[in-house]
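Why 1,4-alpha-glucan branching enzyme? Reviewers of the renewal asked for a concrete example.
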Amino acid sequence: MSSSKQTHDHDTIKAWAEKHNGVPAIVADTEDGKGGGILRIHFPKNSDAKSDLKEVDWESFFKTFDEQKLDFLYQDKKADGEESTFHKFIERE
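Here is what the prediction returned.
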């Protein structure tokens, strides 16, 4: 059985992403000129070169994350025990 966790702790999010070879990113066409946009964790080794994601630094990523009052919902392992890269950003309660 897999279970999800939820956090807005920057260190936890960064550690999870780096453990899974993920990098902070923003969907390119959603930037608003102030650095905001739709956030993603991008896994370059698992995607094609024609990605619509723009890699950003962690500082910019977390600035947008906090401004949008988001939480990070994520999984460490799948139900079968394999590593999971499931994640999504949700509105903070």
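The first helix runs from residue 10 to 19. This is the kind of structural detail the renewal will allow us to pursue systematically.
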